[in-house]
Amino acid sequence: MLRHFPPVNGAYAHKKRDYFIAAFTFFCVAVCLMTDANATLEKQNALGVCGWVFLTGLLLGENKEVRMQVVIAIIFATIGEHFASPFMGGYTYRFGNVPAYVPPGHGMVYLTAVALGRSGLFLRYAREIATFVVFTCGAWSAWGISGYAEQGDYVGALLFCVFLIYLFKGRSPMVYLSAFFITTWLEIIGTAVGTWKWAAIDPVLSLPQGNPPSGVAAWYCLVDAVAMGGAVPLLRALKTISVRIKPGKSRESAYQGAGNE
After folding, report:
1. Directed axis angle between helix 126-144 and helix 173-192, to 10°?
2. What's the start-to-end Cα distance of the chain, in Å?
3. CA–CA distances in Å: residue 170 to residues 4, 165, 167
4. Fewer beta carbons below 10 Å: N end or C end of the chain?
5. Domains in the chain: how many in total?
């Protein structure tokens, strides 16, 4: 079950860049969500501009594959946001929209999960971190269906089960573990300050869900699966298109040169 986990006692390097990306994103998430709690729509849009600037800066040091993964993650997650929030009403933002900072925010959150997942700290203590996450999220899910919680959370318990499947069967367990920390951080802050609120009854499953659901990190497992699965084929397709276009340009230049002669 742990075949995709890193080897025990491996020599894992600590790269400052990975920790900087994580710390910067955790900080930006807190500031952004608390600012948006009482912000106007104009200020919300300004936060979106800042998000794109920050994300672009963070991506400058990444390779093409990671950049493509982030692009795919943003597209897929943003489509999901519009479907789950304004269309289905699974959760609702303050203005009933999808705020401008959400798309770049998804990119920063995904990049943070990747950065923490490849960091020396997470690779070295992968099993200990997995144990902590499973027990913590498991206890949170159990509380949600115990009958003692103010708002029942059967959807969270179901998502927790999905998260476990991804964690022990998926190809990127370290990214999933990292996603738990950053998504839990943003969900707790966002719902606490009223930036968004989850519906008491999920509109699709018609089951009680928490505010936020305990297993919400499972959604980022799906985002990662789509991003990782689509990055390489898309890069190959773009490379093929580029190769086919370049010879055409070369022939056109040659014809023009011959005509000038």
Report:
1. 40
2. 69
3. 7, 7, 6
4. C
5. 1
pTM of the entire predicted model: 0.90
**Domain region containing 92:** 16-234
Residue 256: inside a domain: no
Q: 187 in a domain, yes or no?
A: yes
Q: Which amino acid type is present at position 167?
A: L
Residue 154 inside a domain? The answer is yes
Question: Does 258 reside within a domain?
Answer: no
Annotate 14-77 with DSSP letters as a single string.
--HHHHHHHHHHHHHHHHHHHHHTT--HHHHHHHHHHHHHHHHHHHTTS-HHHHHHHHHHHHHH
Instruction: Note the pLDDT tens digit of each residue in 13-65.
Output: 999 999 999 999 999 999 999 999 999 999 999 999 999 999 999 999 999 99
Which is it for the CA torsion 62, 68, 171, 128, positive or negative? Answer: positive
